[in-house]
């Protein structure tokens, strides 16, 4: 099971918020949070940054396009999917994309369509330069091979360290065996042993653990390793 991706739903339609939240909650890889206004959305972003935002263009306190621009100006790099009204003119879609939205879905829509787009945009973002994942107290940037501390200090990762962290992150709380990690990170290379993997795990712990001898983030469990969020 992967880490639950946090989805923020911003819409003043209570029924739609409740429906989307329930439908997303039916998938173990998503955790939904709702806001009914731009102000509530900004408060939510400030307290617990989501992986993806779904927002309506029509909000009670601010135009949705203004909110999209504000999110981008404040550094939110995750995907933004705009929900626009049925029959909206093409200019409205163009304006949303130019404001910084990644996609537009017209109401009414089938949940399966929205879900497919959510997954597609998250996959694309995970492979982009902007991807930023939370690992312990660090922000993990796979494309840049970096760990960034809460104070902004940067720790450089090797290519293998990056691949190990990325694979464990995607596995969520599930234990990943040593054999699986060796296969996924190094490929089918008979010259690579578990000692090589253990050396990389040791070096990673030196970087991400407060006390590497008593790991609390990258832990050994049941013949393998897992990340604890």
Automatic annotation (TrEMBL):
<dbReference type="GO" id="GO:0006355">
    <property type="term" value="P:regulation of DNA-templated transcription"/>
</dbReference>
<feature type="domain" description="OmpR/PhoB-type">
    <location>
        <begin position="130"/>
        <end position="229"/>
    </location>
</feature>
<dbReference type="GO" id="GO:0005829">
    <property type="term" value="C:cytosol"/>
</dbReference>
<dbReference type="Pfam" id="PF00072">
    <property type="entry name" value="Response_reg"/>
</dbReference>
<dbReference type="GO" id="GO:0032993">
    <property type="term" value="C:protein-DNA complex"/>
</dbReference>
<dbReference type="InterPro" id="IPR001867">
    <property type="entry name" value="OmpR/PhoB-type_DNA-bd"/>
</dbReference>
<keyword id="KW-0597">Phosphoprotein</keyword>
<dbReference type="Pfam" id="PF00486">
    <property type="entry name" value="Trans_reg_C"/>
</dbReference>
<keyword id="KW-0902">Two-component regulatory system</keyword>
<dbReference type="InterPro" id="IPR036388">
    <property type="entry name" value="WH-like_DNA-bd_sf"/>
</dbReference>
<feature type="domain" description="Response regulatory">
    <location>
        <begin position="6"/>
        <end position="122"/>
    </location>
</feature>
<protein>
    <submittedName>
        <fullName>Response regulator transcription factor</fullName>
    </submittedName>
</protein>
<dbReference type="InterPro" id="IPR001789">
    <property type="entry name" value="Sig_transdc_resp-reg_receiver"/>
</dbReference>
<dbReference type="GO" id="GO:0000976">
    <property type="term" value="F:transcription cis-regulatory region binding"/>
</dbReference>
<dbReference type="InterPro" id="IPR039420">
    <property type="entry name" value="WalR-like"/>
</dbReference>
<dbReference type="InterPro" id="IPR011006">
    <property type="entry name" value="CheY-like_superfamily"/>
</dbReference>
<dbReference type="GO" id="GO:0000156">
    <property type="term" value="F:phosphorelay response regulator activity"/>
</dbReference>
<feature type="DNA-binding region" description="OmpR/PhoB-type">
    <location>
        <begin position="130"/>
        <end position="229"/>
    </location>
</feature>
<keyword id="KW-0238">DNA-binding</keyword>
